[in-house]
Amino acid sequence: MKTVIVGAGLSGLTLAERILSSGADDEIIILERESAPGGLARSFHVNGYDFDIGPHRFHTFNKEVDKYLRDILDGHYVKISRKSSVHMAGKYRNWPLTIGSVMGLPFSVLWKSLLDLFNKPNIPVIKNFADFIRSRYGDNLYNYFFSGYTRKFTGIDAEQLHIDWAQAGVNRAVIDKRVKADSLLSLVKGLLLPKPVETKFYYPDSGGIQTFCDMQCSKIKDLGGTILYDTSVETLVLENGSVSGVKLINGDVIPADRVFWSAPITLLYPETGLTFINTLIVNIALKTEVHQNDYQWCYFGHEDLIFSRLTIPRNFRQDCVPEGKDSLIVEITCNSEAEMWKNPETIKQRLINDLKSVGAIRGDDIEFIDWRRIAETYPVYTLDYKEKLSSITVPDGLFLTGRCGAFWYNNMDHSIDQALSIVKGAEFRQDFWNER
Ligand SMILES: Cc1cc2nc3c(=O)[nH]c(=O)nc-3n(C[C@H](O)[C@H](O)[C@H](O)COP(=O)(O)OP(=O)(O)OC[C@H]3O[C@@H](n4cnc5c(N)ncnc54)[C@H](O)[C@@H]3O)c2cc1C
User: Residue 136's pLDDT is what?
Assistant: First the structure.
């Protein structure tokens, strides 16, 4: 069996490693567009600083995935207590909210949210993300945080998004299913807990998150697999309606009996009109330790601020920055038509001003800025995305997988879980918010 895997992200690498480890006599070749493995879980090592694509923490309740993670990392990991935050009313506040962190919110916001507890909006049928959030958190929190954050993050209004966006997005922000933050009532109950749930996540003990993928690659090569970098696949080659290979952008054809495709689904099916959001990742190296905050990442809902999240790598592992220094990872989402996507540095001054306004930098402390354009970071769940997806007919021999290949707003552990299930021939459900 000749198997071609398109994409050396977590899905592709886990599939390759598992198939080869199972002792199957497959010839496996992974084709990767970039010059390094990892996909969205790749890292950039620049002048002694390690930067990931935003915060990347491994967290799972799935025992099989947990075991797989630890087997690959082979003891080379640290376990870190999650500390995330949200910037509201000019201050950094714990996320999920704690009683201490809501104190100091404007009185009108607190009072109106309290009223919302007893006075739920009347929404007979939940038709979109806006309805879902309003029904769960009330109109006040919706207007105060979710509505603007969503418009800034996705570029479209909350009314235009499918409720699946909420299921994935809200869980994604909380990451630990024991933490109940799925409604206003849960948030209030959470405030009253004597001690918030402590969530721990894995992180490699050297380099960035990509170290995990590098370790998978070493295993794959030891087991006889081939990984070709800087190799962009253009499309599939079909014979009598079945997959017979892939065609590269240089015109070469690589024959295959089956293809696992983790590259964006839109490359194969542009006519569906499915779309992704891109992310500008701005890595900022700082000359001195400036951050008093101990959070690892923080969400910024305010629409006037250009970024939606900041990450402090030093709070993942101290040696992600050289001694005595600091750094920031800034995430700015946009679509491919945006001017800032085409010419990222045009936003430099605005970005610096915005970062100063939230106390994240001083301005004179920047050592260097490293700009990265990361395409296709989030599938956009518009109201009709399910119909668009179901219009696709997948030929024999093609397996769509992973975040972009399956158009699936997932996390790393879900990509691994999916790959493990595929190799076992098991049915895989994509509604990962109902954790197995
Ligand atoms: C900002 C951000 C923060 C995140 N934080 C977390 C987190 O904290 N915890 C967590 O668990 N998950 C997190 N995730 C999600 C996680 O990164 C993904 O779920 C996971 O990395 C997806 O892996 P994948 O292999 O499915 O897809 P991808 O990583 O997208 O892999 C697809 C691969 O295909 C390659 N490719 C694309 N086109 C072609 C082509 N034409 N030819 C050849 N190769 C091609 C790509 O370069 C890529 O390597 C985050 C994601 C983002 C964007």
Answer: 83
Instruction: Report the distance separating Cα 9 and Cα 38, nearest Å.
Output: 4
Q: Mutation test of ligand 1: which of 18, 44, 56 has the most ligand atoms closer than 8 Å to its C-beta?
A: 56
Buried b (16+ CB within 10 A) or exposed e, 302-323: beebbbbbbbbbbbbbeebbee
Q: Which of 409, 435, 415, 382 is nearest to 162 (CA)?
A: 382
Q: How far is the CA of 379 from the centre of ligand 1 (A)?
A: 11
Nearest residue CA, atom 15 of ligand 1? Answer: 411
Superfamily of domain 2-43+59-79+205-273+384-424: FAD/NAD(P)-binding domain (3.50.50.60)
Question: Residue 224 region, left (φ>0) first, then alpha (ψ -120 to 50), else beta?
Answer: left
Q: In this predicted structure, what is the pLDDT of residue 436?
A: 43
| % of the chain beyond a pLDDT of 90 | 69
Q: Tell me if residue 399 falls in helix, strand or coil.
A: strand
Question: For ligand 1, which residues put their CB under 6 angstroms from it?
Answer: 6-12, 31-34, 39-41, 53-58, 232-233, 262-264, 267, 279, 331, 377, 402-404, 410-413, 415
Residue 389 CA to ligand 1 center (angstroms) comes to 19
- 3 state DSSP class of 296: coil
CA 125 – ligand 1 centroid, Å = 34
Q: What is the mean pLDDT of the chain?
A: 90
| 41 Cα to the center of ligand 1, angstroms | 6
The tens digit of pLDDT for each residue in 106-130 reads 778 777 777 777 777 888 999 999 9
Enter the pTM of the model.
Answer: 0.93
Domains of the chain: which residue ranges?
A: 2-43+59-79+205-273+384-424, 96-194, 276-379
User: At the top level of CATH, which class does the domain 276-379 belong to?
Assistant: alpha beta
Largest CA distance in the chain: 67
Read off the pLDDT of residues 351-407 as tens digits, 9 standing for 90 and up.
999 999 999 998 899 999 999 999 999 999 999 999 999 999 999 999 999 999 999
Q: Is cis: bond before 313, omega within 30 of 0?
A: no
CA of 200 to the centre of ligand 1 (A): 22
The HSE-up count of residue 163 (CA atoms within 13 Å, CB side) is 12
